[in-house]
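User: structure tokens for this one?
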Amino acid sequence: MSVLIEIEGLSKTFSGFKALSDVGFAIPEGKITAVIGPNGAGKSTLFNLITGKLVPTSGAIRLQGRDITTLPPEARVRSGFGRTFQRTSVFGEMSVRENLRTALLCQGSHVWSFWRAATAFFESDVQALASRFELSDALDLQAKTMSHGDQKQLELAMAVAQTPKVLLLDEPLAGMSPVETRTAVAAIVDEVRQRGITLLFTEHDIDVVFEIADVIVVLDKGRLIASGPATQIRSDARVQAVYLGQSDALEAPELQ
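Assistant:
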């Protein structure tokens, strides 16, 4: 299993407060890695360090052996990083179709063509993505008129459409109904597997984490307390203690 990203001794201090302390783990290429932990564990800080929004106080981040610790966010995007946030981010004035096409145009590096209107590009891909994320009936709706759950589905579809080398999803299922969650999870897993995208995500839904993650990283109070496959994490005493001894919450669900 090859390593895409190496995190080594990563720490971040804000005005004397250590939000992250000496965190280190590897993100395997082409796999799904989940970062879990209670509120205040340092998950968002870790994501912001990996994407370049923050610069670490100490430690290193390497992408395929290349040191990117101080590389700015836009340079990381050019290196193959993609990210969604806890708050939905879509082009509200544009239709679902236009949002999806924009994402595909970015992925394909088609900025503008004198001879061909942008509406001619990627129509079959737009249709396929809309179908996979159950947005086919909303293709001509303005994104801002859709429900929160549908906007989240659209944001996820746009994220995978760009086929980044590594995609970071920060609580991608927040605010979704159980039905929307199942649709989104199935679509995300299928798309990242088919496209060969390395996925790193945070999520409070432990059932989802154990269902889809190849590797699980557990943080508590800014420190790494466990990292490994689901079977190892499920039986880890330190992880059980962090989750208030509620071992049932860490039982992997039966796969359908």
